[in-house]
Amino acid sequence: MIAFLLAQTIAITGGTVYPASGPKLANATVLIRDGRIAAVGTNVSVPSDATRIDATGKWVTPGLIDGAGQLGLVEISAVPGTREASLQGDTIAAAFNVAEGINPASTLIPVNRIEGVTTALAVPVGHLVSGQAVLIDLDGTTIEQMLVRSPVGVVADLSESGKDEAGGSRAGSADRLRRVFRDALEYERRKTDFGRAQMRPLSASVADLEALLPVLHGREPLIAVANRRSDIETALRLAREFKLKLVLAGGAEGWEIASAIAAAGVPVLVEPMDNIPSYDALGIRYENAALLAKAGVTVALMETDTHKSHDLRQQAGNAVSYGMTWDQALRAVTAAPAQIFGVADRYGSLETGKVANVVVWTGDPFEFSTGVEHVLIRGKEIPLRSRQTELFERYKKLPPAY
Amino acid sequence: MRHAWSMMLAVTSACASGGGTRAAQQPAPVQPAPAPAPAATPTPQDAESTSVNRLQYPSTYQRHPSPPVLIRNATIMTATGQEIPNGAILFKDGRIMAVGAKVDAPADAVIVDGTGRYVTPGIIDDHSHLGVYAAPATDAESDGNEATNPVTAEVWAEHSFWPQDPQIPLAIAGGITTIEALPGSANLIGGRSAILKLIPARTVQEMKFPGARYGLKMACGENPKRVYGKKGGPSTRMGNMAGYRAAFIQAEGYRRRWDAWNKDHKGDPPERNLRLESLAEVLRGNIYVQNHCYRADEMAEMLDLAREFGFKIRSFHHAVESYKIAELIAKAGTSVSVWADWWGFKEEAMDGIQQNAALNQQAGGRVVIHSDDPSGIQRLNQEAAKAMYAGQRSGIAVTRDQALRWITANPAWTLGLDSIVGTLEPGKMADVVVWSGDPFSVYAKAVQVYNDGWLVYDRNDPKHQPRTDFELGQEPAPGSDR
Q: How far is the C-alpha of A257 from the C-alpha of A291, rounded, in Å?
């Protein structure tokens, strides 16, 4: 009903369109109808009832997709009552789907969408198996309206931060995961025996084992946090053993074995500006995203600081600065995450039939001098307002008029 | 952030844990800085304690012998109101000799072709925890908060500083030439800062900026009351205020006793107290207060506290709500050291807005963009760019020169070094960065960094890419960026 009332036709005309699915189109039109892209091209006729957005001299791209963060799941990082991304006390929290923790009224959502991020992964954190990540659009008054795909995959932490709950050793992390995976498959085969209490104790709760089955049958990816080269190799090994669809998150030392990651067909979520060495990744470096992409790995970018998810474009710009091509970087914040998160049929590019998440920029979206002129999410123009813009309006002249 | 996929929590380690037009395109002689530029800070003389007449951990800094350098055909951004296209800069023996459209070079000068490149003063970060929260971030390297007492004015950051912190070369590669390394914000009064030349060195003494005054770290708000709330207090903001006041009341007595004894040196000197000595030096104006403070109302309280005891707060650090009282802070002569867009990690950071720097500039304040972060320090030019353009898009006429001063001349002032560094003017120390392009572009990188005339970093020459001991024997190989 609401969707019907909002249904309208919008034509973004005259801009340079970067569809992320092909070369740029100068002086092109993006036609949007009923929340979907109806046409893209230089020869699109605009219906007379269409609302026109003049993008002459502007750049038009798909809405950016942040491959990480906790948008909707955290309001104030230091206030536990406003954090929903971690389930306490469960080492294997595979059944923990974060969706119902999302607060559509979070003030972080407008702050970030008005700067071009229209879609984000909402990620559980903590433990060895953290839970299920979901993909959300940054618009909607209910969780159902925001959800794009739930779940996107199950998150496991093979890095230093995950091993504590596996006995304090990386070997323990791998071993624990193997036991849980085997138990899930055995449980599936012997549900009847389990019901009659004719099975040995299982290494995780039934709910968590059940939640792993889509991963073990390759229907959902295992999203494995791994930064050290050997941890990445462990993730690849587990994926081979259990025929998993694997996504690497972090992947800091991935550049060292980029060709092996590419050969395995495993995509990587990278935070390009993260280059501070730790014992989890002494080989971390700025060029990681570029070197992975050059080797043929599908790379999507992350800004993990949820409050400024919009700095995703700074991440992309720096990825270009350190060797990615501009086109690769654009894809890494649009088409690539859509593909990795299983929504490439609907998201990630400006093509006929796709969901109309579109941003009109004053210029190159990765440049600081560039501002956002229009944001459309599912074909609806988003007002460029947030709690932060209201604070600015109140205090731009002092003293404020309370 | 450091650990991808982990929720960023506020930690006490870090303290957080119109269109501008290009000024003066015409090649012209360098002119004095435009407003806001009240009288330059006097050149620091001897900043050692006046309570005792002895050298305390003196700087052993020595200028690295270097040939004269002429950089020409570059856009020279002086941070004094000039942006000189096709300009040149000559420096020799660690001093800037000439800046302008055409500069003659001595015969022995190294000539650097700056075609397509931009030249700025060395970048200064007035809020860093490099060396005191070194990488790798283990407990063993966590030396920034002496969280054993809410008032630890007796501790000095230099005594924690590790010159082999592998984050140092990363910051150098970002164009940083001077930092203030501060204690953390767990304490009401966290201790003395260290003002350092960011150069490869074996000892912190070799890095100490000669003659620089110490800073004293103070912290408002959530952090001290969280850390001490269950350890004897303070547990409230009013407890915080009472804690600062009690400390400075003690310091007044200490100062009185020492000043009296110093007049004639008769009898036994008063007993030394390192904690009160630092505070007495604040009262004497010899140490600058660097005050971590987020909320507008608390900053107003701190200005009153400073008035009560007769000192000045040199800078409010983080100051995410400073835009709400920008005119009060500007009038007090206190600078604001802010981020471009960090916000929301704790309650007192919820009202952070991207126009904060620009609004303070508009109110006549002295603005600094600081990092408080080993990642952010590598891209302070980008942070300044974000803050400048956010202001311009909101109709605040921030100029490129003003934004450059946010990371050069203004932090130099916060540290009391603005007569020595922070601009490209003849006579200033030759802290110079050559950028691959406009430093306010995301695509620009520092290609050469000169510190006191010494080429400490050259992106195209592995011989000038210092590595710390920590990095030896580890990937990536020398010569690559991390």
A: 10
pLDDT digits (tens, 9 = 90+) for B425-460: 999 999 999 999 999 999 999 999 999 999 999 999
Q: Which of B5, B324, B470 shows the shortest C-beta gap to A395?
A: B324
CATH class of the domain comprising A1-63+348-402: mainly beta
Q: What tokens were used for B359?
A: 């609004």
Domain boundaries, chain A: 1-63+348-402, 64-345
Tell me, yes or no, if A284 comes closer than 8 A to chain B by beta carbon: yes
Contacts of A396 in chain B (CB under 8 A): 355, 359, 394, 396
Helix (H) or strand (E) holding B404: helix B400-405
Closest CA to B367 of B387, B337, B340: B337
Whether residues A74 and B382 touch (CB distance < 8 A) is answered with no
pLDDT digits (tens, 9 = 90+) for B229-262: 999 999 999 999 999 999 999 999 999 999 999 9
Q: Where are the domains of chain B?
A: 122-422
* Average model confidence (pLDDT) across chain A: 96
* Burial class of residue B211 (count of CB atoms within 10 Å of its CB; 0-12, 13-18, 19+): middle
Fold for A64-345, please state it. Answer: TIM Barrel (3.20.20)
The topology (CATH level 3) of B122-422 is TIM Barrel (3.20.20)
Closest CA to A121 of A262, A301, A296, A324: A301
Partner-chain contact B363 A271, CB within 8 Å: no
Q: Do B4 and A269 touch (CB under 8 A)?
A: yes
Give residues 132 to 151 of A whose Cβ lies within 8 Å of B. none
* 28-87 of A, contacting B, C-beta below 8 A: 68, 70, 74-79, 83, 85-86
Distance from CA of B387 to the nearest CA of A (A): 9
